[in-house]
Amino acid sequence: MRRLLAAVFCAAVVLAACEDDSPPPPTPPPPSTETYPDAGTRPDAGTQEPWACQRSTTVHNAPMRLLTRLQLEMSRATSSAQRTEAIDRFVAEVEEQGGRPLVSDVKAGHPRVAFFVRGEAGRDTFVAGDFNGWSATATPLVQVRDTDLYVAEVEVPRTGPQPYKLVKDGDFIADPGARHVAWDDFNRHDVGRFNSLIYPELQDAAKGRLTAWYGVPATVLGDARDVFVYTPAEYDGPECPSLPVMYLHDGNESLTRESFAEAADSHYAARPADSAVLVFVALPDQSVRLAQYTFPPARAPGWPTPRGDDYLAFIRDDLMPRVEASYRVKTGPQETGIAGASLGGLISVYAGFQMPEKFGFVGSQSGTLFWPHDGVVDRDDGNAMIVRASQEPVVPVRFYVDHGSPVAGCTRDGEEGGDDCQSNLEFVEALRGRGYGVAHWNEPGAEHDWAFWKRRLPKLLCNFRNAAPAVCGL
Fold first, then answer.
1. What would the 3-class secondary structure string for 31-71 be?
2. Where is this region: Disordered (predicted)?
3. pTM passes above 0.85
4. Fewer beta carbons within 10 angstroms: which end of the chain, N or C?
């Protein structure tokens, strides 16, 4: 049965190539100075063509003609090795020309879309989306001849960005070869999931978009993690702007527990001049969070060895160069921020003191600022970041600090409803006592939870671009 399906698939692709409309009309060539994989030109490239940075030009899936070419090459191949070489070229070209899935030309009579997976991951795998009612079994990936390539082809109307997932053993997962994603709107109260997108260029032009980088390796840590890059609507405008950039921790949860992207959309729509590229850095898994978001020393029994310095080295040495090579972002500490919530706030503050040459702005939401300076948890002998703020030489960094507190007033850290307000207030006082630029917001009654951090995120985003707290209602 599989051989029959594969034969039908191959014939269908060749036939579709004949039935497809005439070749697409020529598009303007990219500027000769264009070097960014995801939209646009270098900041020093001068005046840009109006189309150079618009989504219709820079955001798209790979073209269906790559699959048609593959089938023609495979029909001429005389050995398994030649077919494998053809598939290798095909996969590389798909990545270079927009990522999965493949789509027919916009003027094609039948809006065809092809999904594929290579290797054992493609065996007994299906694709689901609005086009098949999210059925877990209606659209199987079919093995192509004796290769390790599995493909499915369907018609999907170009009525907007179309979400889909792959289905393996009944589990719905994002397509790891798809570049453009959107949260699937299910709060799993843990690590969340994303839909991959067909026709990503049809996303609402008034809102930002997410690009997924899966499995970004961390050299010193010896692990890999997903990174989601949010580019605001302003980034895709005809002016081809270069924007400031901020790195945010807990990059999956901040997009899927509560949508920080949605909060950013709302703020940037109201204040487009504040627009920035936001890089959401996920964890490999939750088990490493405490280690990677804390710093030496740590002598509490049973606690993991702190690896915050290694984590920050990943951001500085592995991630930042990739972001700066792939996106039109401004460089230098005054245009670069780092932010997070809870332990993410703690490691952000630490990063500001450790790397002021990289990060000129630090945002902390309900930061775990009671972390002790000697690493012994639950011993009241001075909190590490408060000690640094009050005793060490002043560094050229601005701080944003927010947190909740009981309605009746701040209580000691650890008490119900306190949201670590005591240590946060002490940190703000220490900063101000040394002359730091600091914006502070206390939300009485707010809990230590993503919903409250999302609600306060616009204040953080505003303060990143506006040094005067009053501009942001702080």
1. CCCCCCCCCCCCCCCCCCCCCCCCHHHHCCCEECHHHHHHH
2. 19-49
3. yes
4. N
Q: Which domains does the chain have, with CATH numbers?
A: 2-183 (no CATH), 204-472 (3.40.50.1820)
Lowest mean pLDDT among 33-37, 128-132, 141-145: 33-37
**Side-chain half-sphere exposure of 377, counting CA atoms within 13 A:** 15
Residue 35 has pLDDT above 50, yes or no: no
Place of tokens 């005389």: 78
Better-scored residue on pLDDT, 328 or 27? 328
User: Kind of pairing, strands 194-198 and 162-168?
Assistant: antiparallel
Map residue 277 onto helix, strand or coil. strand
H/E run at residue 345: helix 343-354
Task: Tell me the pairing of strands 336-341 and 361-365.
Answer: parallel
* Phi, then psi, of 374 in degrees rounded to 5: -105, 5
Beta partners for 217? 224
Q: What contacts 409, CB < 8 A, 6 or more positions away? A: none
Alpha-carbon distance values, 422 to 184, 283, 442 (Å):
37, 28, 11
Q: What is the pLDDT of residue 175?
A: 98
Residue 435, token pair as written in the block: 């002359």
Which amino acid type is present at position 373? H
The residues that bridge with 403 in the sheet, in sequence order, are 442
Task: Report which of 370, 322, 368, 372 is spatially closest to residue 341, judged by C-alpha positions.
Answer: 368
Q: Which residue has the tokens 């054992």?
A: 120
The DSSP string of 350-417 is HHHHH-TTT-SEEEEES--TT-BTTS-TT--S-BHHHHHHHHSPP-S-EEEEEEEE-TT----TTSTT
Asked whether the beta carbons of 295 and 349 are under 8 A apart, the reply is no
Which residues contact residue 73 at a Cβ distance below 8 angstroms, ignoring those fewer than 6 apart? 86, 89
